[in-house]
Amino acid sequence: MIQVFNTLTREKEVFKSITPGKINMYVCGPTVYNYIHIGNARSAIAFDTVRRYFEYRGYDVNYVSNFTDVDDKIINRAQEEGISEMAVANKYADAFHEDTLPLNIKPATVRSRATEVIPEIIAFVQDLVNEGYAYEVEGDVYFRAKKFKGYGILAHQDLAEMEANAAGRLDDEETARKEDPIDFAVWKSQENPDVISWPSPWGNGRPGWHIECSVMAQKYLSDTIDIHGGGIDLAFPHHTNEIAQSEAHTGQRFVNYWMHNGFVNVDNEKMSKSLGNFTTLHDLLANYDDPMAIRYLLATTQYRRPINYAEETLAQARAELDRIRTGYRNLEFRLTSAISGHDNVIDQEVNRQQQAFETAMDDDFNAQNAIAAVFELVTLANTYAESDTVKQSSGNQLLETLQMLMQIFGVDIVETQTSLNPEQKQLFDDRANARKSHDFQKSDQLRDELNAQGIIVEDTPQGQRWHKA
RNA sequence: GGUAGUAUAGCCAAGUGGUAAGGCAACGGUCUGCAAAACCGUCAUCGCCGGUUCGACUCCGGUUACUACCUCCA
Fold this sequence. Notes:
Layout: E1 3-6, E2 11-14, E3 22-27, H1 38-56, E4 60-67, H2 72-81, H3 85-100, E5 110-113, H4 118-130, E6 134-137, E7 140-143, H5 159-169, H6 172-177, E8 184-189, E9 205-207, H7 211-221, E10 225-231, H8 235-250, E11 255-261, E12 264-266, E13 269-270, H9 281-286, H10 291-299, E14 307-309, H11 311-334, H12 344-362, H13 367-386, H14 392-408, H15 422-436, H16 440-452, E15 455-460, E16 463-468
Parallel strand pairs: 3-4, 3-10, 4-5, 10-11, 12-14
Antiparallel strand pairs: 1-2, 6-7, 7-8, 8-9, 12-13, 15-16
Helix pairs in contact: 2-3, 4-7, 7-8, 10-11, 11-13, 12-13, 12-14, 13-14, 15-16
The structure holds one RNA strand of 74 nucleotides.
């Protein structure tokens, strides 16, 4: 039984998919006008981890996400750089794929772009107009928020309050056009031939921000989907408006479980584009040599909690991950001289911790409790590796479990296989011989030499071993 | 102003009506020719003030601080 915190009800609810064994989920992707920042990465990782856990639990997950590839920011960027809107979108969509690869984020089952569903968007908007949920004003089409019963409940916003706030904020021109200040655009007029636009029944224009997600979720999934995810800031207005559009359109419930990830903060302050205090993943990866540590940090914090990002927290995450890697390596090496068979005590403990992991993750993806079970396995691996007799089967099972559980977080703890070059191999063997003949001066010198080449040599009761620094 | 969230050791962070998981760092010890790694051990009374209770960090009331959302934003 998996429990999921549903933003709509603000409660943990027992998760039940519409179709047994299958999950349809939609996650809001980035606007591709720049490299994604750590906050975007966190969102992608949070839902990738959710997806991986559901898959581990045997679900077939249909994961749909989008790229918003046409909006004001992209248009501005295109004009600044003197290139087309699509060139901007393509560049940063490619960068997204490139940068998320080292973070081990699984590709979406379907990754759609807004501009790929323009006909569907226009048809959707037309229907809203026909049904009286939307109206046209000089080429713009607005959604009548008030006509949709229950508008704002996702974010628990009070309509009257919103109205008061919206009235004071919007520029007069746009407010004047709308019937009501809280109405929002589903289609935006664009008659300037230098700016990208599509012909529509209301003249040339482009989609409003929220409409693409409603359209894609319906097109690639269904009228009612199991899970819709995104950053907590999207609850209002984006998801609020999606609900209004979709439910007005289909008459069906749009989403069963709304999941929202918490923010990444910098120095305890929100990281945002307007504050300019964001770090792009692109830059971070360029200056950091352990992408798995980034994944570890972002995946092992419960998805709804804020993460305070700093070099120090990343370093701490890396230290934790190193402990897991080392434990894995310790037992892996020990297994080279293990005997066949298995130990019931070990097997049972491995099983127990795996269950603890599942219990934790079942509880709204409580990653911190899950990782605690992983550390129990690490300690078990280390103590087992030090025992006099190690059985192949149990040792292997322990390692496989450790690897599998970390893979749910998208963290690969098995270092890629490398080998010593012939010279290093010679130094390594010479050192073993020097130690055998108690020539410690020489053996220490050889160890230093290898160390200088990034090869760490360690002695164990089973002989010396090495790994990369 | 409205609506939410958070406050647990030097740091990160679980948790629950019955005397505080896990990790990082630190310190002590074991192991080691020396290291490294590992292992063992030490390290908090849970923002503040009241209340309920046999008993609260956990429930209730109040209070303080920080953060977020209220049409740029993951």
